[in-house]
Amino acid sequence: MARTRDRFDAIAREPGRIGSHRGPMRRGGGWVGLLLFVVGLAIITSVGLVVVDRIVRDTSPSGQGLDFDFPFLPDLGPSATPTPTEAPVVTNDPAQAVARGVRIMVMNGTPVAGLQNTVGDELATAGWPIGTRTTAGDRQVLDTVVYYVDPANADLARGLVEAIGAGEARAIAPNIYPDQDIVVVLGMDHPAVPQPEPSATEAAG
Question: In terms of CB atoms within 10 Å, which end of the chain has fewer, N or C?
Answer without folding.
Answer: N
